[in-house]
Amino acid sequence: HLWLLHWAAIILPLAFVATVLYVGQFVFPQLVRTLAGFLVLMAAMATAVFLFSHFVFALIERAERGALSRHQELLVLNTLAASASQPMKLEELLLLAVDGVVEAVGVDGGIACILDEKNQELLHVAYRNIPEDVLGPLRRVKLEEGRIHTEVVRTGEPVYVKDLSQDPRFQVPGRKPHFSSVLTLPLKSEGKVKGVLALVSHSPHSFEPSQVQFLLTLGGQLAIAIDRTQLQQQVANLAVLEERERIAREMHDGMAQML
After folding, report:
1. How far is Cα 205 from Cα 208, in angstroms, rounded to an integer?
2. Helix H or strand E encompassing 34
3. 109 neighbors 127 (Cβ within 8 angstroms)
């Protein structure tokens, strides 16, 4: 909306000055000709100029923050795409993603988990700025325990909790939550949830729709990386099994010849 801001910065001051001159010349001509009236008119104009300038600069600042945020988001996506094409462990890739997301979105910490479908568990893989007493219970979490991650895995949709102290899913007797708010998102590929990404903040943090869309896009890339890693592991396991069978056959044939 820069073009709209550009024209507003030109037209609105001109319209205001024209309105003031019209009122002074044709509505209250006698009042404007006095010193008190002139001072009142100047004070009104100065106040209007100050408020308008403050408004314009606030919009420019917001636009700059948005542009910087989009740049950081694109940088994270590009870095992740480049890293995914290199021989890198899944733990390292997820840690890189968590670090980038925390910086780009402006939250205090984050954690990434992968879904173990066989055992119906979420396994912690990478984190940043998560206290050990919070991280400990999250290293291996059963979905049946029914916290917020269960809802994300079940629905495949993000869940945002603004105040953890008021949410019964996070209330522990005698202990206050370390964080104020949390946004939990699915790592989803082809409609299937492969893991969960949770972002936490010490103070209530509002997420813009564009930020949520960026996080979901990132989650799709991470889900593909998880799929690829699991497939590579299955191929490696199959190769080991085939090698064991080959050795067993050779030992059997050799023993048969000796006998």
Report:
1. 10
2. none
3. yes
pLDDT of residue 134: 73
- Write out the two tokens for 25: 């010349």
As a whole number of angstroms, the distance between CA 120 and CA 73 comes to 32
pTM above 0.70, yes or no: no
Asked if 151 and 159 count as a contact pair (C-beta separation under 8 A), the reply is: yes
Give the separation between CA 94 and CA 113, rounded to whole angstroms.
Answer: 9
Helix runs in the chain, H state only: 2-22, 29-32, 35-84, 90-105, 132-135, 148-155, 209-258
Question: Can you read off the two tokens belonging to residue 88?
Answer: 């890198």
Give me the phi and psi of 196, to 5 degrees please.
-140, 140
The burial class, CB within 10 Å (0-12 / 13-18 / 19+), for 230 is middle
Alpha carbon separation from 28 to 41, 44, 48, 251 (Å, rounded): 11, 15, 19, 111
pLDDT of 251:
65
What are φ and ψ of residue 197, in 5° steps?
A: -120, 125
Whether residue 50 has pLDDT greater than 80: yes
